[in-house]
């Protein structure tokens, strides 16, 4: 477990319900909250917090949070419940969910979608002829709109619970073409509104879709992914279902094409989970345009799970990965993910953080391999307890954009008199991933996780939070060391029993396994034998590991296609790596993807993989989806015969 990195903490004069980093990661965090309408002494505010640049090595400066801008809101209106921001050249356009006063709501008017323009303070002081001046930052109100349908109830409790914008594409010409989605809370009829977010005050013509979930089920969480140029995918979850809908939107004409016409249900929580009670979805995020991760709270507060689903163009999603959180996390309140930069092959690492009801934050990493379209198992990065004094309301990662690299050195030119630049790899300065958490107790905590290049010798190397292969190797060495120490203790203990006449060695050695007694009965040679046993159990060459998950995640195999074959007699399995997937398919025409196998074939492969020690149920089917499967006719016929006998 990685020790906690540097962090900063600040206390504000109001409870905090929403938080979001600057989309361009320029060092600002926007938070919002307040005491709501009629709560004297507790202001409703939006504050922009400046996080001091982590490149400063002074630890005291790195851990500092300073208030840059404050936006005081009316005490007659509700507190800030949700936030989303668009980046401008010198600041932000921030959307906020703030209910109108109760009097206006009773009159049938609730302009809950607000927008503000925030201008950052300059990074450096501007000098004039007479003195040094520093223009002050400012925030100004732009407008407000009522995006939800009007409710007929005289006193409505509805508010804008969720607000989410599509991710920014910093290096793309479509970077500022973003859409947004809001969802209601405590409404008679739940509603989701998808809108054009390029305008600070969306009108009716900017509404892309208006969704009313089935049976009035309230939307628990939602997210948006970019799937192409001006193409987006929206996913949202209720307590028991996950839905998806795609949009192709023309920002010039404000015309949208929806696929399908109405949102499709891609997954439902199975019946019977939790001793008659269903588990519930709590959070939902895209890992990429085709995979989502869901946070699940088990029934009766019996724990929390992370589940990864693969989305197909049509039909239900497939759960490809599942992990139980540590036992101290009985229920979770928030989750966020951050996809780090990808390399030329499309491989990348993804950070996942979960806030528990016990005021702890668990952070993991996932490795994504593009060539096989698979994810590694979750690797724990950090676990922190008692992050705040009171319950957390939200956590969020800062977005990570690949840093600008220095230009390559100039090569030598024939006839050049001056010496050319030397070939030295100059990586950008230290890079950090920030994780912010806010609470009912008015506190903000920002953790700064250091990132490192996967290959420091490569100028264009992608960044990672932790190295999975190195971590697995350290775990093997740790287990081997403990095993060696245990054997040495056994050797010394047996030697003592042998040399001590009064000791009853026969009764004590009878407790040992039969295979261990011959070794321990030879004290003179025990150390050498034990060392041989331990060294043989520690893999010194990772590519030689026979488990599918290790083969897929190891760097020497990530660019190759793997095929699992059985022998003609059906008594053994072999795993081969091929550089060219197309050539593999031509050589093994009978090879199939996991999804192409019949159910009974999958079951037979699973049984044989488990018997061979190459796969376990806990690893999930995501590992199997990245492998080709080839079987001889005898094996297939045998399985078919078994199936027929079962009918």
Automatic annotation (TrEMBL):
- List residues traversing the bilayer: 476-497
Species this protein is from: Cryoendolithus antarcticus
Q: Which UniProt keywords apply?
A: Endoplasmic reticulum, ER-Golgi transport, Membrane, Protein transport, Repeat, Transmembrane, Transmembrane helix, Transport, WD repeat
Membrane topology designation:
Single-pass type II membrane protein
Q: Which GO terms describe its cellular component?
A: endoplasmic reticulum membrane; Golgi membrane
State the InterPro entries in the record. Sec12-like, WD40/YVTN_repeat-like_dom_sf
Where does the record place it?
Answer: Endoplasmic reticulum membrane; Golgi apparatus membrane
| Molecular function as annotated in GO | guanyl-nucleotide exchange factor activity
Question: Source organism's superkingdom?
Answer: Eukaryota
Name the protein family: Belongs to the WD repeat SEC12 family.
This one is known as: Guanine nucleotide-exchange factor SEC12
Which function does this protein serve?
Guanine nucleotide-exchange factor (GEF) required for the formation or budding of transport vesicles from the ER.
Query: Please, one GO biological process term?
Result: regulation of COPII vesicle coating
